[in-house]
Amino acid sequence: MTSLGWLFYIGIFLSLSVYNLMVYAGRKEEKNNLYYALIGFTSGFWLFAKTLLHRFTRSPLILKPAGYAAVALLALTILLFSRYFFNLKRLKRSYILLGCIFLFVIPVTVAFFMLDVHLPIKTANATVGIPALSFGLLFWTYSTYLIFAAGHHKEKWKLYIYISTTIYSFCYFAYPLLAAFNVNEITQAFTATTGALIMLLAIAYFLAKKSNQEHTDLVKLKNTLEEKVQERTKRMEEMYQQKTDFFINLAHETKIPLTLITNYLEQDINRRGSSRELNIVRQNTDKLRQDMINFLDLEKLERGLIFYDHNQAVDLSVILAKKTALFGEIAEKKHITITCRIQKNLSVKIDPFAVDRIINNLLDNAVKYTDEDGKIRVNLHNFGNQVFLTVHNSGVLIPAEQQENIFKPFYQISHAKRNIQGIGMGLNIVKNILAEADGTIEVKSAADAGTTFTVTFNRFGPSGSEKSISDIPLATPLAVAGDIGLKPELYKKERKNILIVEDKPEMLAYLQDNLYDAYNVFLAENGRMAIERLEENAKPDIIVSDIMMDEMNGYEFYDTLMQNKKYSDIPFIFLTAMTADSDKIQGLKKGAVDYICKPFVIEELLQKIRSILRLQESLRKNQIARIGANITKILSEEAGGNNEIPAFSIICNDFKVNNNEKQIIKLLIRGLEYKEISRKLDITINIVKKRIHTIYKKFGVQNKIELVNCFKT
Fold it and tell me: Which of 189-198, 362-371, 445-454, 566-575 is predicted least confidently?
């Protein structure tokens, strides 16, 4: 065969190798292509060494070692490919290392040795070929066993690759045999090349087929996945629609009993007069009714249902002035100042009830989110053919990253909860209404400047006899909390102390009302305030706390409390609207004695408080009795049976305690109660109380345990 023919073979090997190497570069997890490329490169190198290398050099020191090295490398790459391709895990890397020794190190070393001693070429070829042939046969036999044992022969494409590899193996076996019989090197090379080409083409075909199958599977998977996603999306949309319909029906069904409650409540107030409790009921029923109306209207807007007629001219100046006056009364309760600059005779095309709703929402938010002694500015003016309504307040900052989201339905700004948070429907309804009326709404908020909402309308100039509507029934603003009439905090020594931490003023007042006559009740609106109250007032016997609060929530408050040894023993009850099982588990995991969900029955809370306090008192008595008994025993042993215990007397003398007071201290240490001490010493309970009060004052303690600890140390 001419040199051009051998170059053609080498070109095939190299082309196949380069292609598979590029495939591996893009899919490095697919090592079949890497080992295939190595087989191609080593096959090309072997063919070059056997057929073309002699054209560049005639030195035996280069030709023979190059040939043996090429054979060894080719055998090694076939071994690696087979091991990875057929997943022959039992063929350890040690076998590959052994193959390297047999197929590369030993043949090359022996070849050099033969050249040096000038043995006949037949002897040299046989000596070098026997180890290679032995290992090749051993590897093929062992691999065949593993392939059939693993069941790879059951897969046709793997079986075909195995057959092609076997063909090449026999050609590989034939190579040293031909060399041993001194067959010319062209025949040797052609035989080995034919086997290598058959193997490489077979492997290339089945690798391509495998890749095509993977592509087909991916396309099928993609199409199937898209179908599943569409099906899942459709199912979720149906579920969402069912859920929405359920809430709509629920809201409609609730409107009837809510209407009856509201009307009967108004009738009762008109007949018998108002009260603080009834005002709270009315305020909350009004809020519930407004939330339901907003929910139903939002659903109508999302479905594209139009329930406003914007083909009406409205005198915005007059309506805004009236609405501002209504909100002025509510703002006064929070000591908020509202200033107005309203340009007269500004009309716009919009449904009058829609504009009432827009103004109501903006002013309601301004009042709710402005702190006491804050300011609200309302401005109405025109510029060209546009009318601008701005409502500015000095209250809550809306972070820049959240300003685009506040007009989305049910979106809640993630600032402090502020006790007044709604459910996030109002501004979305406002934006939808304005979109129908060709208007816009924008917000700007900065830490020092406050928050400003700007609503833009198209100005309308009535012509001829057409008049703008200005006299409509305006929606009454929802009342703010204002003065809910919290009772003064009183302290009576004989009562247990309860700290209530709750951010809703109405709930705070309700809990105070129900606990006021039996306990010393202290109040706080959040965890931070509660910590301050703990430092100011007597130590609570129990704490009842909400979880979702400003500044410091209930969990944070509890964690802070547990870090202080002085308060870490206080029983803790979570009273919260967080009703998920995970929330309950989290609260109880922290160490709370109970977790009560809102809405709750007040009698349940009262009974649990009583039970916890009874248990606490029982444990306290038992503890005092145990400590007292131990101290008495220790002091008696120190005294050696004397009537007067030296250590006890020393402590009493240090605190200037008289004999009468010593008698009472001994009885207190033994765990006796006031009545028992009174009978024991034959004195009245009042005298006992006065003497104990004096004892506490002298020792600087507040209870029996602290007194007992003075003698324990």
Answer: 189-198
